Prior knowledge:
Helix content: 25-40%
CATH class: Alpha Beta
CATH superfamily: Gcn5-related N-acetyltransferase (GNAT)
Amino acid sequence: MPETKRWSSAWSRGVPGLLWRLARVGIRIRLFLVVREGAPSNIERLTTDPRLSFGFVGTDDIPELVRVRPGVDAAKCAERFRGGLLCYAVKDGTRIVSMMWCDLEKFDVETFHRRLGHREAYLFGAYTDPAYRGRNLAPFLRVKCYGALRAMGRNSFFSITEYFNTAARRYKEKLGAVNESLHLQVGIFGSFSRTLTLRRYTADV
Length: 205
């Protein structure tokens, strides 16, 4: 392996551990990418289990949303629905096995905020039941959600990817996602927090 690649690999492995140690003493440093999703990909030509159904869910499904994802609070789900957020899910019968939230009004990530245009959507909180992992549900969830949102007039989909999460970055690249911008978030002892834009990859963010 060339020296530069070896150094880069060691850096990528070591930095998350360092950031975790800093967070334990009250200094939070986070690097994240804003990515644009929804470009055509090979995933759209694949098929999935015909027993599964895809679609938006609502307040009647809150017990299932709480069941499928550890730590999810029913009151928080209800608050999101009241606030106009959408939840797209994959079901096996009545059982939710994969889900993701969609915000059509704002891009809201701690100290990073932006109002969305009338054709944009922010996707977050995707999760798949561990018992159903390995069945390609995560990419199907996103592709089906793109289609449902396009039917509502939305055709630009944004999400956040942690910079050092190389697996997530590769996964989204396979779905046709492109990087829009790179951001640094710094928080100190819970009393100061700021997000800086380090780089814009395209001119149309």
